[in-house]
Structures are given as C-alpha cells and as structure tokens.
Amino acid sequence: MIEVKNLVKKYDGHLAVDHLSFTVKKGQILGFLGPNGAGKSTTMNMLTGYISSTEGSIVINGHDIYDEPEEAKKCIGYLPELPPVYPDMTVKEYLDFVMDIKKVPRKKRAAMMADVMERTRIADVSGRLIKHLSKGYRQRVGLAQAIVGYPEVIILDEPTVGLDPMQIIEIRDLVKELAEKHTVIISSHILSEISAVCDTVMIINKGKMVVTDTVKNLPKHLKGATNLELEVKATEKEVRTALSSIDEIFDAQYTKGSEDGFTQINIDVTGKRELREEIFFALAKAKHPIYQMSMNTLSLEDIFLEMTKQAYSESEEIKSEDETQEPGIIQTGETALELEKQTNVETDSSV
Fold first, then answer.
1. This prediction's pTM
2. Which of 77, 251, 295, 339 could bond to 146 as cystine, CB 3.0-4.6 Å?
3. In terms of C-beta density within 10 A (0-12 exposed, 13-18 middle, 19 or more buried), how is residue 145 classed?
4. In this predicted model, what pLDDT tens digit does every residue of 300-318 receive, in sequence order?
5. Angstrom distance (rounded) from CA 215 to CA 203
C-alpha cells in the first residue's frame, strides 16, 4: 500500500530525514513515534505530497507521489495536527467544499455525506458553525474531511492532542473503525494511545529509523526490556546445572531465595524464542520445583525512551569520531574523501 525508499530531506544543510525506508501494508495501523525534531511531521508532509523530498521515492497504492501526484493524492486522506477547517462555515458547508476539492461525483455526495457524518458522529452538529464547536468536535470534522472520497490511506498527525479523556477514547475507537476499510498511519506523543490502537510501531530519531515491529515484539529489540523472574527450591549450583542446556540463558543473575535452600533467578529473555516452557521442563526434569515465575516487560514509554536515547548516544559517538579525524578528511557515510592539507602553506613556501 505504501512503499518508501531512501527518503531524504535537507533544509539548508540540516538533515531532517536521513535515508528512511519502510512499507505499510493494507489494513495496517502504523504508529509513527519519535521525539520532537525527529522528522515525523516532515516525513508525513512528504508522504502527502505537501513538500518534496531531496532524495528517495514514495509510492502510494502503486502511484509514485512525484510521477503521478494527482493519482497518489487521491489515495490519501490527511489530518494535520491543527485541523484544516474554516470556522465561518457550517459543518455541512465545509464537507461540501471538501467534496468539491476531491472531485466527488454529485450523485454520490448525499450518501457519502451521511456515511461520513455517521462514522465520525457529527451529524447532530451538521448545521452549526465550526467556530462554535468544541475542540473534540472540530477534531472529528477534521477526521471527516480526511475520509471524504474514501481514500485507501489515512494519515493522522497527533489526532488526540488537547482532547479530554472521553474525547481521546472516542477518537481511539474511531481510528480502529477506520482501519477496517483503510490503511492508517498515526503519529502521537501519547504512547499509551499508540499501544492501544496500533498493531505496528515505527520509531525514528534524528531522521533515522531506530526500529519497526509489532507492539508485542518491540521489547525483543532492546536488551533487558523483558526479564523472567523465578524462585526455585534448589541451590544456585543445582539451578545452573539444570539450565546449562539452554543456550539463550547467558545473562542470568542468581541471588539467595526467600527461604533457606531457595534460589532466585533473574533472566534476560531478549530474543525471539519463548524460554518459559524450556525452563519449566528443564527444572522439572531435574526435580527442582518452581515456586514463582513472572515475566516483566518495560512499557512502550520506557522502550521508546531507551531506544531513542541509545540512538542519540550512537550518533554522538559517530560525531565525536568524525571530529577526531585528521584534518583534511571528511567522513560521508561509508566513504571518506581525502583532501590535500595545507595547500596554500606549501604553495607559499615554494615561492
């Protein structure tokens, strides 16, 4: 549905998006995360064709956003952080205006108007001026304009910002309903909303991809994000011997248990294998009873903070290494351009 390859955006030497590549499948809800200045809004603006990229390609439903801009944009519905509504229009007048812009055939407008209003729950305010609506209703009107024309892709930038808890729940439910017929990309700083609504998360930092995966699998990309705690009726030596056949257990911590003859174990379970069954059967085979077993996983907020912090630290290390290079060598990606040093000085000394 959406295919982005090597997307780059530069502003006067500032690299806002750095060779970003990703795909979004039909019917998927992708949560787009990143700290302020990470390049989220810039990427969304390029996806919608609002701004052009410096390099790279964007294909929406088989249409290149630059080679076939009109066809590609027909496939996109966009709700920016500030809904693009006209306050002196009524809700119905505004949606009629949007239908004109999107060239919706006249014979389809009445049915589409009724359907869009019902889906966004704004039929009861259709005759009111938008400036007299609450923020929650204005947000719904913004969503309504995004789905006018039934685009295949809907892009939502901070759709719940400034809303009260009840309005947030309503928008969350609406996004889930939209995913039944549309592909949805949603950007938000409210990470609990992302984990509640999205099936896939993509995190970027400083314009670069940090990670993309399902919400469930995200902890597997971060060492220490998930750990298994056990209390076993056995000595540390006996437990180590029993678990020695499980290769994935390489970073376990052993401490004295709550009673004599008991051992507590904290195991990092970073990886794709499910270890709980293997651990259970290994200890059962050795006849060491498990009195307690619990799995602890970091929240999406903690994973987000840790991953973006790590990405920032890595970029600073690269920057530091570049600054320590000998004068006259400029590092660019994987290549280095060697310049002649002190050319002017050598020229002057030869005169």
1. 0.71
2. 77
3. buried
4. 777 777 777 755 555 555 4
5. 11
